[in-house]
Amino acid sequence: MLAALLLLSAFATQAQNHEQNLRTIFDEALTKGQSYPMLEYLSLKIGHRLSGSPSAAAAVEYTRQQMESYGFDQVYLQEVMVPHWVRGQKEIGRIVNSKFGSQDVNVIALGNSVGTGPEGLLAEVIEVQSLEELEKLGKKNIEGKIVFFNRPMDPKHIHTGHAYGGAGDQRVKGPSEAAKYGAVGAINRSLTLAQNDTPHTGSLIYEEGVAQIPAVAISTVGADYLSRSIKANKAMKFYMETHCEMLPDVLSYNVIGELKGSELPNEYIVVGGHLDSWDVGDGSHDDGAGCVQAIEAVRIFKATGIRPKRTLRAVMFMNEENGLRGGNEYARVAKEKDEKHIAALESDSGGFTPRGFGIKSSEETLAKIQSWSSLLAPYDLRKIVKGYGGADINPLEDQGPALIGLMPDSQRYFDYHHTTDDTFDKVNKRELELGAASMAALIYLIDQEGL
Amino acid sequence: MLAALLLLSAFATQAQNHEQNLRTIFDEALTKGQSYPMLEYLSLKIGHRLSGSPSAAAAVEYTRQQMESYGFDQVYLQEVMVPHWVRGQKEIGRIVNSKFGSQDVNVIALGNSVGTGPEGLLAEVIEVQSLEELEKLGKKNIEGKIVFFNRPMDPKHIHTGHAYGGAGDQRVKGPSEAAKYGAVGAINRSLTLAQNDTPHTGSLIYEEGVAQIPAVAISTVGADYLSRSIKANKAMKFYMETHCEMLPDVLSYNVIGELKGSELPNEYIVVGGHLDSWDVGDGSHDDGAGCVQAIEAVRIFKATGIRPKRTLRAVMFMNEENGLRGGNEYARVAKEKDEKHIAALESDSGGFTPRGFGIKSSEETLAKIQSWSSLLAPYDLRKIVKGYGGADINPLEDQGPALIGLMPDSQRYFDYHHTTDDTFDKVNKRELELGAASMAALIYLIDQEGL
């Protein structure tokens, strides 16, 4: 009985200790936080940073120096060869010979797409709502045409990520699927719930052995206009001209900074984001925010003197957007070195107010993390649910760590995602800081309690 | 046993019914919602609408017509005399004779303040951090000077409303407290966590029998600069010139729209916001958002055919900002008519993503509302806590209804609050819609289940 009481009292003391440390973590982030000035540098001084670009190299060096400057125990680069896709000069999209006359519309080449070259591509357009529709239409209706994938994201989803997931196949797989039926090009309705004239890029994946056709995204307003134009005159044509191309792979790096664990230094907790961004806007939300939050989460331990038992690793993954080479390489090396990863936490859903965490793990691990709810609720982290960790940490799955995604409010993310509008002014300082503190808080609890 | 089983099955059916109706409510708001176009009209065609202004009258007429157009059972105006404060020509604030030279700084008169008139006011400045400090300094240090209240909002609060609450006494009571010690004017650090050069207005309340001194707010950047200037040269003076004045009261209105209850028409559920705004920006977040959400919440019932048992009332309260006359009059009339209000729900914290509800009620009522958590969680309404309802509904307190405040994410609210930056472009369509749907969802459950 006495033993039980002592144990109970030890638990209570421990919980109180956790409570105080979480408060310390949030206070540090909200009063002396470095995430916002770091993001300002990354976004405004370096700017967008597609894999293989000089600015991606600058981002590697900047984040390396920052982690050094904060006194992390070890900061190093992990080599990774990355694809080097370049957009070239600005795209042209033009509705030709429609009932409403000719009209230029805003388009943006999809990442990894081949270009049309200067001669451009002029063809009739056939609109579809799904990949399945292609089969029904068959070669006779599709051959020689541009396929226009126009299924919108479904606004009825509360979490916009689900709406994105429900429409994304058109962009990723659409061009190759269309090419199988003889299509000569693809136009994709931009993946956003916003109704405006800004097109959204993002990667396509060409299927091996299928003809590679050029593909562009059109804005939501443009998509509606194009759809009306086709209905009014089926003989209408579309002219697209893109100058993008895939160059040879380039040597780049994941950037890794560590705080050594005091008791279990060979157990690793990863906290990360991806350093590359699309080549428009400045990638502030996708995923500059995640990178600076990951660095900040580890910096907070150093600055507040909260000593981790296990080794904390901030990882800036390279090439999430069009290849995932960084995430794959990190996992490969971790396996090769037989490193024991107990958890990996990624922030790649924008720098908005955090609402909780999505967790991919065993039921027991999920339940254990959920058991910390009362410690996290004062910070309005109230959504701790089964979910997806993140693209860069997902390759670690077979090595067993809990894969966890920071879950910020999702409403504005796809307003900016992969566009010229993903810029620093769209990030609220406190929202960014709260995200960083939330990440630090969760890795603190994982470190202290184990998983 | 059979009876128990039947009862259990009736409960299950009812819960399923609720689940479906909540889904219907959110689908309506997210796919056919009217809150955003209503707010666009209110903000861009009518603009800011301080009590007593012609645009406040336009807002009364617009919201009346909108509720009529949606086929509410009854729409009517409730007379209320409101204060008529006018700002007059733009304020001047000037640091004079400082060590750094003279410098104009952005200031804005506090609402209800007397003006300096064209002759302006020139005096030395004494900086304080609290009302208590005034007593310590005493008349000998304060008399003839301008008191500069410079205690910042505390960034360590997670909910920014708490930070606002912790600093607001300086604005509301500061000028009269300072006047008791012979101060001739007051300058208030703007109530915001943002560090920029935009000053925030808001009302002061003059204490009866105390000399009324002119008061302005200075931006946070300006406040820091002024503080440094005083430290560098205590003999520095400040020149302020304001042209505001209080004119005679004006006849205005609360605007009320009803859907009649099918079973208990004499029980009322109020859903509201306040129609007046400060005379800068266009009052989109404070509180155009709340008004259009309240109308939308009731419209959703009408549009989806969900028939309420009790009478639902959308109320556009007039004069929250500088008098609360509308809220007081509404409560007075309700009491006079002996109307039974079971709940009142106000949205007056901005049109941001809803996170839950703050509830001022008995413990039993709070527990009952919390028992609906599993119905609300799919909409990410996960914070259902004891709290404050809202300024306009608070006067109903002694009549017994649950007073409930919609709780949107609070991080950006005080970036815009009471400034030229509170404009329509700061409102995200889906965030606004989700707030309206959340209000409809909660009044639906209250209507169906009672309180």
Automatic annotation (TrEMBL), chains A, B:
Residues 254-437 form the Peptidase M28 domain. GO terms for biological process: proteolysis. InterPro entries: CPQ, Peptidase_M28. It comes from the Bacteria. SUPFAM superfamilies: Zn-dependent exopeptidases (SSF53187). The keyword Cell membrane does not apply. It is found in: Endoplasmic reticulum; Golgi apparatus; Lysosome; Secreted. Residues 1-15 form the signal peptide. One of its GO terms (molecular function) is metallodipeptidase activity. It holds the Pfam family Peptidase_M28. Gene3D superfamilies: 3.50.30.30, Zn peptidases. Keywords: Carboxypeptidase, Endoplasmic reticulum, Glycoprotein, Golgi apparatus, Hydrolase, Lysosome, Metal-binding, Metalloprotease, Protease, Secreted, Signal, Zinc, Zymogen. GO terms for cellular component: extracellular region; lysosome. Homodimer. The monomeric form is inactive while the homodimer is active. This is Carboxypeptidase Q.
